[in-house]
Amino acid sequence: MGTTLTGTFETRRDAEMAVERLVQEFGVERADVFLAAAGDENTAGEELDGSDTEAGSPSPESRDDAALNGGITVSVDLDDEGLAGKVRAAFDEFDASEVVTD
Asked: Is 47 part of a structural domain of the chain?
């Protein structure tokens, strides 16, 4: 029987880094990983980070219109129960909160 683990991240960067860790290092199939806004509105997370922040020269002018409307959830469907610990470790490494198992 499969398991789904879901974690909520404060920034888009943290969510993306967790996904990359799962796919590239732990071999989780990308088709088994789902990202979504934690609420009803589009969001880039709860705070600016990564590509949402100001870049150095000669980048274009900085923007301040990132949709900061709550967290980003990452859900992972697992058929291999042995990967659950690795998913939890990746979620922890990138500061996921509200990690739940279904």
From this structure: no
Q: Are 14 and 84 in contact (CB under 8 A)?
A: no
Cα gap 5→82, rounded to integer Å: 13
Residue 75: domain span: 3-40+69-101
What is the domain-level CATH number for residue 19?
3.30.70
The order of strands in the sheet holding 33-37 is: 33-37, 72-78, 3-9, 97-101
In total, the chain counts a number of residues equal to 102
Measure the CA–CA gap between 71 and 85, rounded to whole angstroms: 23
Q: What is the pLDDT of residues 27-51, one digit of tens each?
A: 999 999 999 887 766 555 555 555 5
Domain presence at residue 7 = yes
